[in-house]
């Protein structure tokens, strides 16, 4: 049994950016860039691509990556991760988003280490952001308590304030999640019901809060740039060239 398995969910039909996993960044497909970083963190045999698309499968297979075909009816990436996890024997499953081509190895390892210390909590990364970045609706903002437990996550500007004189610190989600198989199973099974906050915010991790599974947030470097829309490609390429 593998102690750690990284699963990268990859769908072709993104509403904001169709074909996103296969977009090329400095000549290399984004999903390949992410997978190679993950392999350096946990080893080639422990990294899997979960997809429902044959184009993605073909490209990944050309790079000798492990590919698991999943249903095309997955509501979220984490639902896809669960389906893939059924074919993998592992104690801990890490969901690394395929649109994080600058994800740091040390950040992945930090989330893994934190999950080992907190086996009964879902673990997710977060980092500090500026007020300007916090205004972007594509960036999920994180609200935590003194023990770094997630209170809420929103695309709105949170925490809010009645007085502009009150100084606020803003944090964003960094999409490296850690779960055990039971947590993934409960998450997947709840999709049959109605997860109101998850649907309203379009933030899948909120489903865990709705089923009373605690989420611990671990601070990571935050230097990664997620590719949400086409214009993000130029930002990533510019930073990579540096």
Order of helices and strands: EEEHEHEHEHEHEEEHHHEH
CATH architecture: Alpha-Beta Complex
Number of domains: 1
Helix/strand class: alpha/beta
**Share of helix, binned:** 25-40%
Determine the N-to-C terminus distance: 40 Å
Give the overall pLDDT as a whole number.
91
Give the C-alpha Rg: 17 Å
> Count the helices. How many?
9
Strand percentage: 25-35%
Number of strands: 11
Shape: globular
Major sheet strand order:
5-4-1-6-10-7-11
CATH topology: Spore Coat Polysaccharide Biosynthesis Protein SpsA, Chain A
User: CATH H-level name... which superfamily?
Assistant: Spore Coat Polysaccharide Biosynthesis Protein SpsA, Chain A
Tell me, what is the CATH class?
Alpha Beta
Low-confidence stretches: none
Largest sheet entry: 7 strands, mixed
Write the layout of secondary structure elements.
Blueprint: E1 2-10, E2 24-25, E3 28-29, H1 30-42, E4 47-51, H2 54-62, E5 66-69, H3 77-85, E6 90-96, H4 105-117, E7 122-129, H5 131-134, E8 141-144, E9 150-154, E10 170-179, H6 181-189, H7 196-201, H8 206-210, E11 215-219, H9 231-241
Parallel strand pairs: 1-4, 1-6, 4-5, 7-11
Antiparallel strand pairs: 2-3, 6-10, 7-10, 8-9
Helix pairs in contact: 1-4, 3-6
């Amino acid at each position: 049994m593998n102690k750690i398995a990284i699963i990268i969910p990859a769908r072709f039909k993104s509403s904001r950016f169709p074909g996103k996993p296969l977009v090329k960044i400095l000549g290399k497909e984004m999903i390949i860039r992410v997978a190679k970083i993950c392999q350096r963190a946990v080893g080639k045999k422990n990294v899997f691509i979960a997809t429902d698309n044959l184009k993605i499968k073909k490209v990944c297979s050309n790079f000798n990556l492990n590919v698991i075909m999943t249903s095309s009816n997955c509501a979220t990436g984490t639902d896809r991760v669960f389906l893939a996890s059924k074919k993998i024997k592992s104690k801990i499953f890490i969901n690394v988003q395929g649109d994080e081509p600058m994800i740091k190895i040390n950040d992945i390892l930090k989330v893994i280490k934190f999950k080992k210390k907190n086996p009964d909590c879902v673990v997710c990364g977060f980092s500090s952001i500026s007020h300007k970045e916090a205004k972007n609706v594509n960036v999920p903002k994180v609200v935590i308590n003194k023990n770094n437990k997630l209170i809420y996550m929103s695309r709105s500007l949170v925490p809010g304030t009645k007085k502009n004189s009150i100084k606020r610190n803003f944090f964003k989600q960094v999409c490296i999640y850690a779960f055990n198989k039971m947590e993934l199973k409960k998450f997947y099974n709840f999709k049959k019901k109605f997860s109101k906050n998850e649907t309203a915010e379009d933030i899948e991790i909120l489903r865990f809060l709705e089923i009373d599974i605690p989420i611990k947030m671990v601070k990571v470097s935050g230097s990664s740039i997620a590719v949400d829309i086409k214009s993000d490609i130029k930002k990533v390429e510019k930073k990579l060239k540096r």
